[in-house]
Amino acid sequence: MSEAAIEFDVKCDAAVIAKTVPTQRLIEINLRAPQGSRRETRPDFNLALVLDVSGSMSGDKLAYTKQATAYLLDQLRERDRAALVVYDTNVRVVSEMQPVSPEQRAAMLRRIDDLQAGSMTNLSGGWLEGCRQVGLVQTTGAVNRALLLSDGLANVGITDREELGEHARQLSQRGVSTSTFGAGSDYDEHLLEVMANQGSGNYYYIDHPESIPEIFRRELEEIAAITLQDITLIIDVPPHTAIQIPGEWRTRQADGRLQVSIGDLASEQQRRLYLEVLAPPSEADALEIHLLFHAQTPEGREIQRESTVRFEYRSADEANEILRDAGLLDRYYRVSTAQVASQALRLEREGRRQEADRLLEHQLAAAMPYMDENTARDYRSLRERVKRGLDQTERKQASMEQYRIKRSKDKDQNS
């Protein structure tokens, strides 16, 4: 794998800002992971499979989940480790974390076949136990991840969305990531997305039970192809300058630095991030924002890239008249509008349709001049549906689409 193949491109919408008034500018950061070499070089896996076996999982959902779990185990190597945790009202460790030897694989497959649906949904208990199992063996360079599948609302244990998101953030900082899989129409899509975003993993919406094996396959193929791990963007924020990042990334700000955790990227996978910069007025010649990209390869090699964006101070008239990059503005408004749409869908889910409509109205007024007609039509349609109210399936489909846009994911990446 060549480090030269790593793309870290930085550009701004316009390089001129005003001396006398605050100026809003945008920075676009484009990341692309290098192409992987041989499949044999994939990172080792330390995986906890955390499966909902509450009463609502009976029938096809549980049958296809068993099939998906068996497929996943068949793809693991002897140096990989796996644990199986199931939850309904109670949490049960079906198989402790250990290497996937042929004997252990056979034993796990027998236990999977014996699983039966139970009662309530102790999502937090099952997930935290799965993360604990991963933490017992986590190693640098390996994929240390809990794969959480649920088809219902968390109604036992910790149920607060923000609290679970905070736990996911803390676990990710300690090296244990989380991917979430929502099956059917009854789970909280915003909860599972928050957990995946804060947990540096992926979120999947599974609309039909028969899709469960395919979605598990996609997750496994992605993590097997990882070529960059623990990707972090560090931004030196100049005094009196405000920087916001749409897209619901995990961030931390302290001592004049803004740190963005991007997680892992598979071979040739791309992510785009946008910095909303509010530059202060000044008599200085320029404002400079320094960016540091840091990651490591599965082999443990550290990689860094640096870039500095320079904005020149001019008169307010010159700053207002400068030609801004239309393509960048179009791409930015896709992401920022997707974030606002996600917020509106959360409000709509809570029955706060008027607030959701006002939020979309304000965002679309700003974004429409830069959007192509097809995108604009889609968001006008979404606004109308938000005003009348969405059913569970519509809401999940709409939320999934916004998630893909925020995370620069292709439509075919998730089902």
UniProtKB/TrEMBL annotation:
Region (Disordered) location: 386-415
Alphabetized SMART domains for the sequence: VWA (SM00327)
UniProt biased composition (Basic and acidic residues): 386-398
VWFA domain segment(s): 46-220
Tree of life domain: Bacteria
Name assigned to this protein: Uncharacterized protein containing a von Willebrand factor type A (VWA) domain
Organism: Longilinea arvoryzae
